[in-house]
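Reviewers of the previous submission asked for a worked example of the structure-prediction workflow described in the proposal, so we include one complete record here. The input consisted solely of the amino acid sequence. No template or homolog information was supplied to the procedure at any stage.
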Amino acid sequence: MREALWIFGYGSLIWRPAFPFAERRGAWISGFARRFWQGSTDHRGTPGSPGRVVTLEHAGDARCFGAAYRIADSEVGAVLDGLDHRERGGYERLRLPLAFSGGGGAEGLVYIATPANPNYLGPAPLEAIAAQVTRASGPSGANSEYVLRLAESLRELAFHDDHVFELERLVRAAAPERPAPALLAS
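From that input alone, the workflow returned the following structure tokens.
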């Protein structure tokens, strides 16, 4: 019997997985921090005006909270094909241990953008990231929506992330006329 495939989402996969799953659980991975250091030229920006989306950076004893999705055996091929296309902008697959909110864990597949990819933007002051986010928009919508939805989704899961919440505050201050996005029902 094959071990179940779990996909760990820490960015847009939290609120918009866009693939069939058999189970969804709050989860985290250890040793990584979520950062808005990856450029998006295909979803939340354009080649001339890239947006910023999250990736994971090694960070000692940090925890990155998100959602884990168990994929039915019959759906694995199609789900991986879809995710490989969706994450084509510089993300690589890694297998990492997941811990589930209610206890237990499993090995999970995680997409991470490393500094070796051409869309990697790296660290910047949060004020500069917020300014870039408020200007950028792409085929998947405004970059600011990505930040706001991620923050709201983390709150819905009862998870905290200082980096995301401070960026959310800065984005709201820069564009106060934009209402908070409505979350999709879980």
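The first helix runs from residue 76 to 86. We consider this example representative of the routine output the project will generate in years two and three.
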